[in-house]
From TrEMBL:
Residues 28-200 form the Helicase ATP-binding domain. GO terms for molecular function: 3'-5' DNA helicase activity; ATP binding; DNA binding; four-way junction helicase activity; hydrolase activity; metal ion binding. It catalyses: Couples ATP hydrolysis with the unwinding of duplex DNA by translocating in the 3'-5' direction. This is DNA helicase RecQ. Its cofactor is Mg(2+); Zn(2+). Belongs to the helicase family. RecQ subfamily. Pfam families: DEAD, Helicase_C, HRDC, RecQ_Zn_bind, RQC. It is an enzyme of class 5 (isomerase). It comes from Marilutibacter maris. GO terms for cellular component: bacterial nucleoid; cytoplasm; replisome. SUPFAM superfamilies: HRDC-like, P-loop containing nucleoside triphosphate hydrolases. The keyword Isomerase applies. Residues 508-531 are annotated as: Disordered. Residues 537-616 form the HRDC domain.
Length: 616
């Protein structure tokens, strides 16, 4: 009980939160008492507190394994803002600075020390841990992003598999492994690879109730649809994921031309450019990062208001992790995706042409199929997404309230006849052509290729003239998603029937398709307010915007990301409460004693000066 009270006191005074969420209290008490733990908690659920609080409650310093330098630097700076003794050891430090941090650690002057797995496994670091352990200066080992241990995952880091050395050499030191993304097989692999067989497992809901999920069918390249989406998020920070490096650069250029503050990020850019763009994204407000999946793991920016995929991601697991970078602060956020027939063909080809083993290819096809099922479902997307992680989500009569299918239920139609026509046209044209040519056959469009091959004499010529090309692209996309057709990567993605197409062709199986929505009219102006500003009255909105400007000035002066000073959600709560003194300010979530002492007077003074009718 005394440990629980001490943890709650630290939570309130240091981190500014009134109470624990979910299983946080139980996890903190278990680890602080010396137990091992595997923690699966969604992004934004408060995983970091699960090892930061035990580190402050136990004697010695916690060694935190973190995969990215930028992530550990941001976390250390955020802890400094709260008055916590933290540091990191990484390759950006000069020898003198690194030696100073090592002395602080061995002298007992640190609560948390962040290191990359590669550095931890080096002989020098292991030797330092041995010395610190002998002095009682190792409180616990925390392994963040633990899913990196899985060779089947999208973020595999081979060094993570060697972290069993921590348990082998120092079995008396408690370990906590944490991740936001792990299906059941990945969980089993984490337990096996990190020797956590006796660890207590804490599995929270994977649901992110503050995120709204939307999937649209791509119109052309999807850029106009993306611009329409971004106009609803004017002035907000977000990430746009694209399929390839070239696509990233093209989309970034198009967004800049449209007046959006966008930057590219991919592994082919010079290291200094990538670092500068990432730093600007983290420190500034309203930046849109256009990136490949090379960007994002461990990005600790809590005020990302949206994640958009202009192209289909590679797996449902990757999609969940990437969309999870939105709304870490718990405020409203949006996950938006456009995908089309070409995306399905390209990703299937990427798998088939890869050098992976047959076993790995089969696994990747299964993950892609699950993602396609998510995209094409007419049911609640949240329920479909959570089912992948083995979680049942009970959908009420009104739906989940946070996905396009529940908010605007899609229309469906009996696509059995259309499917038979499409499959017949593929078969009778020799299973040698892509969807574009087969659609020309179905709609009776005379082209040079149609004439060259005599396809205007086929029995399937013009039998699909009741649908237009856009509707037929939807039919073929859904046939590919259902596994009735596949694209032959070695024959320029020519479509061919699969074994499961037979019953449909013979009329033994019926199909229901999503109806293709009519293209929406283009909007030429930007939205009037962001999601975070929604429902604020005019005075609160003015205070919120003034506070963001004040925070930006402080961040520039300190050369730190704006969110380590205060999260957007904290600024919004301040704007709504309109506090008049330090006592009022202290009651707002996210304001601990150190931040109140450091910023309280200046914040209250700024609020007073920016108030309507003030002399300022």
């Amino acid at each position: 009980m005394r440990m629980e009270n001490a943890a709650l006191d630290l939570l309130r005074t240091v981190f500014g939160h009134a109470d624990f969420r979910g299983e946080q209290a139980e996890i903190v008490e278990h680890v602080a008492d010396g137990g091992d733990a595997l923690v699966l908690m969604p992004t934004g659920g408060g995983k970091s507190l699960c090892y930061q609080l035990p580190a402050m409650l136990r004697d010695g310093c916690a060694i935190v394994v973190s995969p990215l330098i930028a992530l550990m630097q941001d976390q250390v700076e955020a802890l400094h803002q709260q008055g916590v003794r933290a540091a990191c050891l990484n390759s950006t430090l000069d020898a003198e600075t690194a030696a100073k941090i090592e002395r602080e650690w061995l002298d007992g002057d640190l609560d948390l020390l962040y290191v990359a797995p590669e550095r931890l496994l080096g002989g020098r670091m292991l030797g330092l841990i041995e010395r610190a352990h002998a002095r009682g200066q190792v409180a616990l080992f925390a392994i963040d992003e633990a899913h990196c241990v899985s060779q089947w995952g999208h973020d595999f880091r081979p060094e993570y598999r060697q972290l069993t050395v921590l348990h082998e050499r120092w079995p008396d030191v408690p370990r906590i492994a944490l991740t936001a993304t792990a299906d059941a097989p990945t969980r089993r692999e984490i337990v096996e690879r990190l020797a956590l067989d006796d660890a207590r497992q804490f599995v929270s809901s994977f649901d992110r109730p503050n995120i709204r999920y939307t999937v649209v069918h791509k119109d052309g390249g999807g850029i106009r649809q993306l611009l329409d989406f971004l106009r609803r998020h004017d002035g907000e920070s977000g990430i746009v994921y694209a399929f390839s490096r070239r696509r990233v650069e093209t989309v970034a250029e198009q967004l800049v031309e449209a007046g959006i503050h966008a930057l590219p990020y991919h592994a082919g850019l010079p290291a200094e450019t990538r670092a500068a763009n990432q730093r600007h994204f983290l420190q500034a407000d309203g930046v849109v990062m256009v990136a490949t999946i090379a960007f994002g793991m461990g990005i600790d920016k809590p005020d990302v208001r949206f994640v958009a995929h202009i192209d289909l991601p590679k797996s449902i697991e990757g999609y969940y992790q990437e969309t999870g970078r939105a709304g870490r602060d718990g405020a409203a956020a949006e996950a938006w995706m456009s995908y089309g027939l070409g995306d399905v063909v390209n990703l299937r080809a990427l798998i088939d042409q890869g050098e992976a083993s047959d076993e790995r290819k089969q696994l990747e096809r299964g993950k892609l199929d699950a993602l396609l099922g998510y995209c094409e479902t007419t049911q609640c997307r949240r329920r479909n997404l959570l089912a992948w992680f083995g979680e049942h989500y009970e959908v009420g009569k009104a739906g989940c309230g946070g996905c396009d299918n529940c908010l605007e239920p899609p229309e469906t139609w009996d696509g059995t006849v259309a499917a038979r026509k499409a499959l017949s046209a593929v078969y009778r044209s020799g299973q040698r052509f892509g969807a574009g040519h087969v659609i020309d056959i179905l709609t009776g469009k005379t082209t040079d290729k149609v004439s060259q091959y005599g396809h205007d004499r086929l029995s399937t010529w013009a039998i699909g003239s009741d649908l237009d090309a856009r509707q037929w692209r939807g039919v073929f996309r859904q046939l590919l998603a259902a596994g009735l057709l596949e694209a032959d990567a070695e024959r320029y993605n020519a479509l061919r029937l699969t074994a499961t197409a037979g019953p449909v062709l013979r009329g033994e199986q019926s199909l229901s398709f999503r109806r293709e929505p009519e293209p929406r009219s283009r909007r030429g102006r930007r939205g009037s307010s962001s999601m975070l500003e929604a429902e604020l009255d005019s005075d609160a909105l003015a205070r919120f915007r003034a506070l963001r400007e004040w925070r930006s000035e402080l961040a520039r002066e300190q050369s730190v990301p704006a969110y380590v000073i205060f999260h957007d959600s904290t600024l919004r709560a301040i704007a709504e409460a309109d506090p008049s003194d330090a006592r009022d300010l202290a009651g707002i979530p996210g304001i601990g004693e150190r931040k109140l002492e450091r910023y309280g007077d200046d914040l209250l003074d700024h609020l007073a000066r920016s108030a309507p009718g003030s002399a300022a």
